[in-house]
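We close this part of the discussion by returning to an individual protein. The sequence in question and its C-alpha cells are set out directly beneath this paragraph:
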Amino acid sequence: MLSRQDGPSKETMIHSFLPIWKYLNGKFPIDEEMAYAYTKDLILRSQHPIRAGNNHELVMRSLDIEKSRNILQKVDLPTLIIQGTADPLVLPRNGAALGSAIPKSHLTKMEK
C-alpha cells in the first residue's frame, strides 16, 4: 500500500510523495523534477505540512453518492460527467453512480 511518510525533515516528506505521484499518474510517464518541485512548494507553503497531502480524504468523503443521492436528484441542469477508466483515485464505479444519481446527466468514459 502506498502511503506518505512524515519524517523528521521536510525533505523526507517531499521524497515520500514521489511514489504516490507515480501511482496516480498511472500508465503515463511522470516528470519527477516537476513532481518534486510541486511537492516541495506544497509542503513549504503549508502552515500544517503534515496535512498537506490529506486533501484526498475530503475527495473520498464527497464521493459517498448514496448519502448525497437526495441532493443530487435535485440537480435540474444537463450535467456532463467525464470519468477516466483507469483513474486510481476516483474509481469508474463512482462516475457511474454519480451518473445514475443526477437525472439529466451524461457519463462519458475516457480510456486510459
User: Anything to note?
Assistant: The two ends are 22 Å apart (CA to CA). DSSP finds five helices and two strands in the chain.
